[in-house]
Write a structure and sequence with these properties.
Belongs to the type IA topoisomerase family. The protein has about 900 residues and is α+β, with helices and mostly antiparallel strands. It is built from 25 helices and 31 strands. Strands 7, 8, 9, 10, 11, 12 and 13 form a seven-stranded antiparallel beta sheet that branches. A four-stranded parallel beta sheet has the order 2-1-5-6, with helices on both faces. A hairpin with a 2-residue loop joins strand 18 and strand 19. It is globular. The protein starts with a strand and ends in an 8-residue tail after the last helix.
């Protein structure tokens, strides 16, 4: 007797295999083996020609989904069927959430097993959990399957109906999504608030006082008994004090005068207030809170967090990572409390075991919070993990352990001081007992350091005492605009508003970035011009579909369908069909949407009204551009690629237009070349250019300004130095090859140009590309190579696939600039966009590398062939007739249109 166990991924299969008897065979389905048609050419023949075929859902027949086995899964299905023939029992061991239940259901539908079948569920991959799950198998949960299918259909209808409209009216490759479009709206609206924000200025005084040889600070809070204005008193839309606020607004002169008046006066303690505060630890991680904290503390994106967590789960380090629950099992509570007692002592244990309850409505994923797996929590040092794996496990371990620790107790102290008519306040904080803060401080990397920073000591003070004023300083402040969303704050907002499911946020945010709706700068999500255009179109013509409350109600209805409280068919009919349904809305609105208007972005303060010009911001075939009109004359100027609406100022707009009308700014004449040097702004930002572009000088030398060097700071001498790049610094002592300093698209760098390959290192402050020495360049080249995201090139791979069968070299998946890729020797092969990392196999990797190698050799062959026959082709081209060219052009256009139609249904679908 043999049992076939099917899981989703090879990593999970390898881990589980270690805990099962020898007569158990464990195979991976590589995720879903069936889905709605991913492209037009995969629609079954019997449905082609139907008006609804492109949707993959029969909207005329009770919204019946059309499932197909994608081409890349046909081999997997064949192997699973072969394994099933040799088995006497089938165990479906996919994840215990809706998606996992759906995968198991599809396996049953495709494999059609004639042997006993059981559904096995577990939330951690340990020997104890797996063996226990085998003894407590259950039937397939049809309601979970139904819930997943309804969501899938709804997301397909939303994406495949709205996205083509965006292609027609704005640009190809865009997408709309039930959750994605709402998230984009949040990001765009925050940027609108920032652009509408008006800055206000205010001053106050800061005093350095001393009592009993202990110094402390106090801040001015009142003057003549009236509150002194702070940032919270300003109206963000005017930059002035909000109406109805009774405050004293100090300017610079008034603050300085007050400072001089109070400098030598007597200070007195007028009041002391002490309040005891108790803080409880945060609950263990859910999917959402893990993404938020990993983004805040580790600077990991939501997508990276889920990739790392998936690997930790599949290798048996943590429990299932897609969960809305904060509940801990009795086993976990015992393990956590043992850790507390052993590492921190009994006094740090909470008096009673802490159990947390899930507040979010419809929480339904796994049944336990994310925690270290097993009945014994391995410390991070015991795991032999490294890189992001170790960092994320450490975060999960600390949060779980802290949840069973004692409350922290602290005393907040407030001291009021009076000097003449001015009131000052000093605040302090004393940690009486750190409790859980000893293990984990939310939002901080190092609990010990954070604990020290939380204490703000004050000397022992009494009412009536007269501290000495050591220093008095007038301090100016400016109000700040609303903060941009980070991935963490966006995830928090989406969850609090009830939009989407936390388990999908990583893919949603990833899509927003991949589609070009937002850029990440620092840790902030900054919307692009495309995001503004798409959001404006959807807000104007489909307001309900991007309304947070409407989307949250949609989520509630989906939950009700999952629990049997609502019916699927009436809801889908109401959403899609009928007079007010999405289908008719799109048909009605399409004729009313002017493509030129849709590509025009409305932004406040685009230009100076006194120059007589009207400025418009548009999206074109090659990106965003400015259109300036004066009377009948229209001038256009491209906007640098990396520029966002946030960076677009009236001054920059006028400079870009001026560059087109008046020519570039001339800095002077090159002392050696005798040619003029110009300052220009191009697709990648400002740069200097030697000489004018002409027929005889089609590619004048250009050098971009290094980061941190402002245009206004570029003198003729600086420009000459930039144009001298690349600088030869010397010959490498080991290879004799040249070592140079230069500036590229991604900034300044040094390069070692050996025969084997060019070895680059970025130049970062305080080093300067114009002054860096040969010795310093050698130091940089000796350092481990670091990627653009700050990760070493010798980084821990996202996943290890195994060894290459020919040379035994490891094949791993790495995180690259254009997404995940596999590396073997000098060949890098990117994973298909739709391919999940966790389900990618060694066999798929070998096929991908083989195809990449073949395409590379063909490309070289074609290049040589083209080079050798250029003269022949040139002669032939001269003899060809205009009529032939015209015919060819028509055929080419027709072919392109045909190809476009086929590809049209492959994009645009996302939650």
């Amino acid at each position: 007797m043999s049992t076939l166990v099917i899981v989703e991924s090879p990593t999970k299969a390898r881990t589980i295999r270690n805990f099962l008897p020898k007569d158990y065979q464990v195979e991976a389905s590589m995720g879903h083996i069936r889905d709605l048609p991913p492209s037009a050419d995969e629609i079954p023949e019997e449905y082609k020609g139907k008006t609804w075929a492109g949707l993959g859902v029969n909207v005329e027949g009770n919204f019946e989904p059309i499932y197909v086995i994608p081409k890349d899964k046909q081999k997997v299905v064949k192997e699973l069927k072969k394994a099933l023939k040799q088995a006497t029992e089938l165990v479906l061991a996919t994840d215990e959430d809706r998606e996992g239940e759906s995968i198991s259901w599809h396996l049953l539908q495709v494999l059609k097993p004639k042997i006993p079948t059981r559904r096995m569920v577990f939330h951690e991959i340990t020997s104890e959990a797996i063996l226990s799950a085998l003894q407590h198998c259950r039937d397939l949960d049809e309601q979970l399957v139904h819930a997943q299918e309804t969501r899938r259909i709804l997301d397909r209808l939303y994406g495949y109906t709205l996205s083509p409209l965006l292609w027609k009216k704005i640009a190809r490759g865009l997408s709309a999504g039930r959750v994605q479009s709402v998230a984009v709206r949040l990001i765009v609206n925050r940027e609108r608030e920032r652009r509408a924000f008006r800055q206000g200025g205010y001053w106050d005084l800061k005093a350095l006082l001393e009592q009993g040889k202990t110094e402390f600070e106090a801040k001015l809070i009142t003057l003549n008994g009236v509150k002194v204005a702070t940032g919270s008193d300003f109206d963000e839309s005017t930059g002035r004090i909000a109406e109805g606020r009774n405050v004293v607004l100090l300017d610079s002169d008034q603050a300085q005068a007050l400072k001089e008046r109070l400098r030598e006066k007597l200070w007195s303690v007028s009041n002391i207030d002490q309040r005891s505060v108790t803080r409880k630890p945060a609950p263990p991680f859910t999917t959402s809170t893990l993404q938020q904290e990993a983004n805040r503390k580790l600077r990991l994106s939501a997508r990276q967090t889920m990739q790392v967590a998936q690997g930790l789960y599949e290798r048996g380090y943590i429990t299932y990572m897609r969960t809305d629950s904060v509940h801990l099992s009795e086993q976990a509570i015992v393990a956590a409390r043992n850790c507390v007692e052993q590492k921190y002592g009994k006094e740090y244990l909470s008096p009673k075991p802490r159990q947390y309850t899930t507040k979010s409505k419809g929480a339904q994923e796994a049944h336990e919070a994310i925690r270290p797996a097993g009945s014994y929590f391995r410390t991070p040092q015991e795991t032999e993990l490294s890189g992001n794996d170790l960092k994320l496990y450490d975060l999960i371990w600390k949060r779980t352990v802290a949840s069973q620790m004692a409350d922290s107790r602290q005393t907040n102290i407030s001291v009021d001081l009076q000097v003449e008519d001015a009131g000052f306040r000093a605040t302090g904080k004393r940690i009486d007992f750190p409790g859980f803060l000893r293990a984990y401080v939310e939002g901080s990397d190092d609990p010990d350091a954070a604990l020290e920073n939380q204490e703000v000591p004050l000397p022992p003070l009494k009412v009536g005492q007269h501290p000495d004023c050591k220093d008095l300083e007038a301090v100016g402040h400016e109000t700040q605009p609303p903060a941009r969303f980070t991935e963490a704050s966006l995830v928090k907002t989406l969850e609090s508003e009830g939009v989407g499911r936390p388990s999908t946020y990583a893919s949603v945010i990833g899509t927003i970035i991949d589609r070009g709706y937002a850029q990440i700068k620092g840790n902030a999500l900054i919307p692009t011009f495309t995001a503004f255009a798409v959001n404006s179109l959807l807000e104007k013509h489909f307001p309900d579909l991007v309304d947070i409350r409407f989307t949250a109600r949609m989520e509630n209805t989906l939950d009700e369908i999952a629990t049997g409280q609502a019916d699927q068919l009436p809801y889908l009919q109401q959403f899609y069909s009928g007079d007010g349904g999405l289908e008719n809305q799109v048909k009605e609105q399409e004729s009313q949407i002017d493509a030129k208007v849709a590509r025009t972005i409305e932004l406040e303060n685009l230009g100076d009204a006194t120059d007589g010009m009207t400025y418009r911001l548009c999206l074109g075939r090659f990106g965003p551009y400015i259109e300036a009109q004066k009377d009948e004359e229209i001038i256009t100027a491209s906007i640098p690629q990396d520029l966002t609406p946030a960076d677009l100022t009236p001054e920059l707009i006028q400079e870009l237009i001026g560059q087109k009308t008046e020519g570039p700014e001339k800095l002077g004449v090159h002392p050696e070349a005798g040619e003029p040097i110009f300052m220009l702004i191009g697709p990648y930002g400002p740069y200097v250019q030697l000489g004018e572009e002409s027929e005889t000088n089609k590619k004048p030398k250009r050098v971009s300004l290094p980061k941190g060097l402002e245009k206004d700071a570029v003198t003729l001498d600086v420009a000459v130095s930039l144009l001298s790049l690349p600088r030869l610094l010397g010959q490498h002592p080991e290879t004799g090859a040249k070592v140079k300093a230069a500036i590229g698209r991604f900034g300044p760098y040094v390069v070692h140009e050996s025969k084997e390959a060019k070895d680059y290192r970025s130049i970062k402050a305080p080093d300067d590309v114009l002054t860096i020495t040969f010795e310093r360049a050698l130091e940089l080249l000796a350092q481990p190579k670091v990627g653009r995201r700050g990760t070493k090139k010798t980084l821990t791979p996202l996943r290890e696939l195994g060894e290459h069968p020919e040379d035994g070299e490891p094949l791993n998946i790495y995180d690259g600039r254009y997404g995940p890729y596999i590396k073997h020797g000098k060949i890098n092969a990117s994973l298909p966009k739709e391919q999940a990392i966790e389900t990618f196999t060694l066999e798929q990797a070998l096929e991908l590398l083989k195809a990449k190698a073949a395409s590379g050799s063909k490309s070289k062959s074609r290049s040589k062939s083209t080079s050798s026959t250029t003269a022949k082709k040139s002669t032939t081209a001269k003899k060809s007739t205009t009529a032939k060219k015209s015919t060819t052009a028509k055929k080419s256009t027709t072919a392109k249109k045909s190809t476009t139609r086929k590809k049209s249904s492959t994009k645009g679908e996302t939650e």
